[in-house]
Write a structure and sequence with these properties.
With 223 residues, the protein is α+β, with helices and mostly antiparallel strands. The chain folds into two domains: 10-60, no CATH class; 64-214, Nucleoside Triphosphate Pyrophosphohydrolase. 17% of the residues lie in helices and 34% in strands. It contains three helices and eleven strands, in the order βββββββαββββαα. It has helices spanning 110-122, 178-184, 198-215, and strands at residues 21-31, 35-43, 54-60, 64-71, 76-83, 95-98, 100-103, 129-135, 146-152, 160-162, 171-177. Strands 4, 5, 6, 7, 8, 9, 10 and 11 form an eight-stranded mixed sheet that branches. Strands 1-2-3 form a three-stranded antiparallel sheet, with no helix packed on it. β4 (64-71) and β5 (76-83) form a beta hairpin. The radius of gyration is 20 Å and the shape is globular. 21% of the residues are buried.
Length: 223
Amino acid sequence: MTETTRERNTDLVPEFSTDAVEVVERETVFDGFFKMLRLRLRHRLFRGGWSEIFTRELFVRDNAVGVLLFDPRREQVGLIEQFRVGALERPYGPWCLEVVAGMVERGESLEEVARREVQEESGLEVGRLEPIHSYLPSPGGSSERLHLFCGCVDLGGAGGIFGLPEEQEDIRLRVLPLDTLLAALAGDSPDAGAVDNAATLICLQWLQLHRERLTGRKGATHG
């Protein structure tokens, strides 16, 4: 059954949609490296009627793509390590292990962005791309939607420093055994905080579920 012919589970459909929101005023309060809007709005209530008009700030970000690099033959994962200003107070420090990621430019398909970002941030060429999931990282205050893929690559001899200096990118590609990363997902692992961003966690958990299919090896689900 295809995606277009499947019927949605009505238990998962929200009661309200976009037409249950009225934006009274929209103001740009910051427009720099990022953009911030201030909205005055109201919406319908579960108990009936409408809410009072209230104010919310919205961090405006467009679609983005994330790619988990996986070598099925070696059962290795490629993650990038880079500085993140939002992680200044992180116990492990502000250099985070992440999937390759980048913003979607006008006119680009998601797959085109995925392949471009992988080449820029790892120097690798992707074989097949498998969709993982699409989600809103922080819908309470941001409009960003992140589209995740698994990119099958050859990680033999991979590594090095990448990124675009004109965009202040200083990126190191790390190649790690899949089992090492999966073991770090356990809550009682001493390495549990080494990977602590949502996109990478989602991708690794997806890979744990699909490992046997991607590698073609029975029983390749330990870790």
